[in-house]
Amino acid sequence: MENIYSKDGKVLLHVIFRKKDFIKQRTDISPPEEFLQLSSLKLDKGKTFRPHKHVFCEKITNIAQESWVVIQGKVKVMLYDLEDKLTKETILAPGDVSLTFKGGHNYEILEENTLVYEYKTGPYLGQKFDKAFID
Description:
Elements: E1 2-5, E2 12-17, E3 26-28, E4 39-41, E5 66-72, E6 75-80, E7 86-92, E8 97-100, E9 105-109, E10 115-120, H1 127-130
Antiparallel strand pairs: 1-2, 2-8, 3-4, 5-8, 5-10, 6-7, 6-9
């Protein structure tokens, strides 16, 4: 797992978690204070959980956070800092995930028929309220 911080090292901007990072039963990838929560689970046959449902609890979000999970193909991800400067480029392969908590990002699809799951915090209020483009 690779954590990418702001220049001063105080703000977690992005996380890259690779398929090879599945090494223990549970890894909490997102810090608990972030809106977008992700954990990896490496589970053995027969594992089960107590049936449950999630309760309604009012939560206020103030930023859209995003994650891409590559299922098939390859994706180049470009990650930006808080000043809109490119800070990291890497290739995501099947089973890899990128998370953006703060800062910017861009993606380039490198193979035909690439399949990706995109997750975002919601509710989605439209591009006008969700994005500021980096030039």
